[in-house]
Specification:
This protein is of the alpha/beta class. The chain folds into two domains: about 35 residues, no CATH class; about 120 residues, 3-Layer(aba) Sandwich (Rossmann fold). The protein contains six helices and six strands. Helix 6 links the parallel strand 5 and strand 6. The longest helix has 16 residues.
Length: about 160
Amino acid sequence: MSVNHPATRRRFLQSSCGAAAVLALPRWVPASALGRDGTTAPSNRIQMAAIGLGFAWQMFTGRDDVRYLAVCDVRQERREAGQAYIEQRQGPGTCAAYNDFREVLSRDDIDAVYIATPDHWHAVITVAAARAGKHIYCQKPLSRTIAEGRAVVESVRRHGIVFQH
């Protein structure tokens, strides 16, 4: 009795698929990974950064669906205090600190930015953030001139981001 079935990769995978699938399944999946027990699933969290740690930048820090990955301020004492504040809430090593807002905007893992810089920087940083594809929450005033305001509106529309002011 000879079996004329040559061994192929496809046949091997078909015959072992059932056992491999059972072995590949995790035995326990934490409820937090699935968004159960009142937690937000990681896939539903907004990865955020604060640019300028001025007035009310901590507004979104108490939300379960927001995670701060970075803070940015030109003043070292504010930057370090902001990083310590976020890491106290989220855990050590969870928040990077930057001096230059362009470094924050270059990160691919940041979805949105909160802009709380001095007023004369709002329009410049908003346009740059829109170009980088980041969603934006910006403190008032938006701009100093009509031309700056128009540049912000044009940039937000062109890049299709969510903007709140």
